[in-house]
Amino acid sequence: xxxxxxxxxxxxxxxxxxxxxxxxxxxxxxxxxxxxxxxxxxxxxxxxxxxxxxxxxxxxxxxxxxxxxxxxxxxxxxxxxxxxxxxxxxxxxxxxxxxxxxxxxxxxxxxxxxxxxxxxxxxxxxxxxxxxxxxxxxxxxxxx
Length: 144
Hints:
- By secondary structure, the protein is of the alpha+beta class.
- It contains 5 helices and 4 strands.
- The protein has helices at 43-51, 53-68, 82-97, 99-109, 125-143; strands at residues 2-7, 73-78, 114-117, 120-124.
- Strands 2-1-3-4 form a 4-stranded mixed sheet, sandwiched between helices.
- A hairpin with a 2-residue loop joins strand 3 and strand 4 (120-124).
- The longest helix has 19 residues, at 125-143.
- The chain is globular, with a radius of gyration of 17 Å.
């Protein structure tokens, strides 16, 4: 079973660094860091994550799923990563429901904050909340 948490737009930053946050580190081609760059290269990620409720929601859900459902493959995917989302969701839904349902499911899969279980849309993480999302994923794990 695969659960995909679609990262909200607030965390999908163009040109993001290793932490999916803004790049403020002036890295030069020879590997040195510009003198104006912060000494803690991950400070930008912690600073943004502390102030962003949607990011904390995704992170908390991910960590709880890892802890409570260790056998489930949990992925966090950026909403702009259609190269992964579209074919993965289409294949999963087509195998179970057919082409028409699979095509309809593609729109929901690329919605920021979507929770997907084996390609199927469960709901929006911001409206479900962590506890409800985990409960719904548990139910779907038992059904399959």
